[in-house]
């Protein structure tokens, strides 16, 4: 049961990682769907969008063939609207709130309509925003992910010069490095970053990491304000015997390698177990299967009712042939010759609710064993505690503490996105970037 790469043909890789939700195949198809919309007053879909996109308006604009106006309506609220149309869990946001659900009818395909308008904007390079004259103010942003890019775009439109410091060699953050390749490609992410920065006044300095190449103190001295959007990214460890064995990998690293390298270069096992049931766990499991793993099993310590991922995401894993074992928690990893060969799990049962409101899993006293050659840990991510401590930022267990407007305990320093909320959706980070930019503009009296 070896862990190896290059398991499939080029054609199989292309098929396995093709677009999960293809766009409308014609203008006519988009118009038919747009004309289904009831254009609700006080629309619940808009209320459920973290960035408050005026959804009935942009759909109405599509229905009247004003696609450029539709894209502008989307981008005013969410400059990463093109990417979000591919990766947002719309079933629990806008589409989940569509009134058609109350009629037991299929909700409007809001995401596909959003993609229809925004991708044309990117492809045709529509210039939908004019930058105001330069104000002479300068702002530094740490992190070229959704929060940082959103903040930068709002600031730049108002004439503020922005410099983004990004530790990776490409922008996009989670969109580029942390999401399944069949949802959004690195090439698309690169196009989206270029489109966002094309407004002007935004300079991205790559391979620049806070705490390593630059310091917060230096940024404070050189800029009028600072926005921190460095996210999270440290994998939560299992802290069980055998975790150090060969074949035990972090889901974050596994997905990163798939995003950064060619599919055929990423090794995967025959019998893979993924620990966790969040979006990252689903992405890791489905991609392991699509890389050529023969068996993929998801292990989760609670039941389906408590899982962090959506039903739609779980269905993707099931359709890909992944198995799920509920009420099971890893207890020990056994190995031979330094390589993982078995995962011993405790059978769990649900007890009283924990601080999050979910019922806490407790051991039943029974165990079972799974044969494995690869274990992917997707038990969550933890904040950069050392980084925030070293910069004297007020925090709660590593999550930067901010006011409603994104301001931190340090005057002139703002923060948003995953480094504040601990890891939510891309669209939440975009909204944090917007709010942070507005607070910075007020702080700078722009």
TrEMBL record:
Pfam families: Fer4_20 (PF14691), Pyr_redox_2 (PF07992). Residues 28-61 form the 4Fe-4S ferredoxin-type domain. InterPro entries: 4Fe4S_Fe-S-bd, DPD_II, FAD/NAD-bd_sf, FAD/NAD-binding_dom, Helical_ferredxn. PANTHER family: GLUTAMATE SYNTHASE [NADPH] SMALL CHAIN, GLUTAMATE SYNTHASE [NADPH] SMALL CHAIN-RELATED. This is NAD(P)-dependent oxidoreductase.
